[in-house]
Amino acid sequence: MSRSPMIVRTVPALRRAVEDLRARKATIALVPTMGALHDGHVSLVRLAKRRAKRVIVSIFVNPTQFAPSEDFSSYPRTWKADVARLAAENVDAIWNPDVKIMYPDGFATRIVPEGPAIAGLEDRFRPHFFGGVATVVGKLFTQVRPDFAIFGEKDFQQLRVVTRMAGDLDLGVKVIGSRTVRERDGLAMSSRNVYLLPEERRAAPVLYRAMKESAKRLRAGDGFEAAMTGGAELITNAGFALDYFEARHAETLAPISSLKDGPVRILVAAKLGKTRLIDNIGV
Ligand code: PAF
Fold this sequence. Notes:
The chain is an alpha/beta fold. The protein has two domains: 6-178, HUPs (Rossmann fold), CATH 3.40.50; 196-282, 2-Layer Sandwich (Pantoate--beta-alanine Ligase, Chain: A,domain 2). The protein is 37% helix and 19% strand. The chain has helices at residues 11-21, 39-51, 79-88, 99-102, 122-125, 129-144, 156-168, 198-203, 206-219, 224-237; strands at residues 6-8, 28-33, 54-59, 93-95, 148-152, 174-178, 241-249, 264-272, 275-282. The strands form two sheets. The chain has a six-stranded parallel beta sheet, with helices on both faces. Strands 7-8-9 form a three-stranded antiparallel beta sheet, covered by helices on one side. Helix 3 links the parallel strand 3 (54-59) and strand 4 (93-95). Helix 6 packs across helix 7 (156-168) and helix 9 packs antiparallel against helix 10. The protein is globular and about 55 Å long. The site of pantoate has 10 residues, from strand 2 and helix 6.
């Protein structure tokens, strides 16, 4: 049976909710989201439930991680459906602050992450992004003070950035990565997939196919250059404008040129029409 989660919109109300949920020292897991929830988010919530007694999901479309040219105002917002999904998962509370609550007038403090945040992947194409993510996630962690926080591996560089930040700033939260959930044809689930036109949606699974193909060639001992170029060509031949298709160290995100330098992660970002997709797999 599903039960409606508590919906919280102010910091004092959140503090009271967290205090209640913490009764008898119950552990809390936070799942930070921007809403427009899909099955990938549900899998994060389910992992959170396995890790902690109580689960809080934040829904906040964070303006500071969007550049002026990006889709902040058109980002899909599906509040009613989101609440219904979270109720069906028996989430305890939804933290849904307004922009003015998160960034009150005069807000003047930002977290500027380095290390994995300046690895030359997403940061090269979205230089504003990780500062915005680190600042909002830092605030979410200090507001909720969860024991665990669950992030999807689909945003792999983001996962590395928030993991590093939580450790560096002693935020007392264990960051846990959750496996990417894919459509049947391999496309990674993403709130932005709704932007794809029908013919783009048909082409989109090539990202996953290309990564798998390059990973297979790397494991078979092919040269790094040839294996990665082959994957990149599959993607551009399908009509994508490629931002990057790279093999990196899975922990540090440093460039590598041999499987021996691993663990290895292949990461891709590419634009199809107006939609930019990212994805990654382990080798
Ligand atoms: O991955 C997301 O949905 C967002 O970047 C996050 C972590 C909720 C921060 O706004």
